[in-house]
Amino acid sequence: MNILEVRNLCHRFPDGTLAVAGADLCVAEGEFVILAGANGCGKTTLLRHLNGLLLPTGGSVAVDGVSVAANPRRARQMVGMVFQDADSQIVGETVYDDVAFGPENLGLTRPEIDRRVAGALEAVGLSCMEDQRPHLLSGGQKRRVAIAGILAMKSRVIVFDEPFSNLDYPGVRQVLRQILRLRETGHTIVLTTHDLEKVLAHADRLVVMQKGRIAKDGPPEAAVRGIDVLGVREPHASRNGMTLTSWLN
């Protein structure tokens, strides 16, 4: 069953720029999809339609069969997004406050909020940091706080926009492990990245965009071949006929 359905999506910004030009994308529940493409190809614009941060100029986007445009509040509860700049997503004075922000806006009771926050922080390995100031954490820890906030909302789909950007090697490994744990617990994952080496071995599909359209879509080992012509660096292993391997090995 498809949890995400993007049909002939078009988005034109007020300045006239056509950022997405007739994109079609379906994602099955529990699937792990990587969305790649050169800068300006429309990846982030497409992602922002999945939970109603942007609404289509043309076409449609549905989450679990319900139009995002018709019910953006529902879409935002079902589809959580981790932004490239983790600091822009932090709103609380403490880690607890930040993770509790979403559930509080749902009008949940304090015991339910406490339960959700505790469970989310435990899931990302930050239970001991609930009183810490999030802006003072490392880059990898900030991303995990953002993930915890999404888990506290009980989002079924988690969207990552360049989750490894500006992270050092330990931070990349922390975030990658967390993404894989989410996949193991049944979450649907859509992730954009310029660095396929780090994560492609774990994905179910690779989707490549070019000029606002889907240019390639298929199993990673097949779809990755020759993508240099689409402005995406093909991983060294694929270029040399080797099997894609995990960064965590």
UniProtKB/TrEMBL annotation:
It comes from the Bacteria. Its main location: membrane. Pfam families: ABC_tran (PF00005). It is found in: Cell membrane. GO terms for molecular function: ATP binding; ATP hydrolysis activity; ATPase-coupled transmembrane transporter activity. GO terms for cellular component: ATP-binding cassette (ABC) transporter complex. Keywords: ATP-binding, Cell membrane, Membrane, Nucleotide-binding, Translocase, Transport. Residues 4-236 form the ABC transporter domain. Belongs to the ABC transporter superfamily. This is ABC transporter ATP-binding protein.
